[in-house]
Write a structure and sequence with these properties.
This protein is an alpha/beta fold. The chain has one domain: Roll (2,3-Dihydroxybiphenyl 1,2-Dioxygenase, domain 1). The longest helix has 12 residues. Strand 6 and strand 7 form a beta hairpin. A four-stranded mixed β-sheet has the order 1-4-3-2, with helices on one face. A four-stranded mixed β-sheet has the order 5-8-7-6, covered by helices on one side. The mean pLDDT is 92. The radius of gyration is 15 Å and the shape is globular. The protein is built from two helices and eight strands; from the N terminus they run βαββββαβββ. It starts with a strand and ends in a 9-residue tail after the last strand.
Length: 124
Amino acid sequence: MTSLLTDDLRATRRLFEKLFDFKVEFANDWFVSLKAPDGGQLGVMKRTSEFVPKAHQKTPRGVMITVVVDDVEKAYLKARKLKLDIVEEPRDLPYGQRRMLLLDASGALVDVSSPTAPVDPSYI
């Protein structure tokens, strides 16, 4: 399981519940365990929890979580309705995906992608 460290458990939980239909398996005041419709799991932990070493209680850099969806445009419209922080509107990428980027309350980028064509081998 991957876990995101966040200052706002509610906002991070809301993004994955409302946009991607993740379900809460467990929640308390410092940790939430979420289950994706495909069975994958994501943990969300309060950044300042006693279980996170002080040296690592910082906003992440270089972190991107990818969620593959059937229809990026549908996810984009839902993200706008939810007033999520859209960093990049949907666009086609040269390696056969359509993608949008969101910024989660944890500071992580969320890459929301749909395949549009077979992957071009030159990008592998």
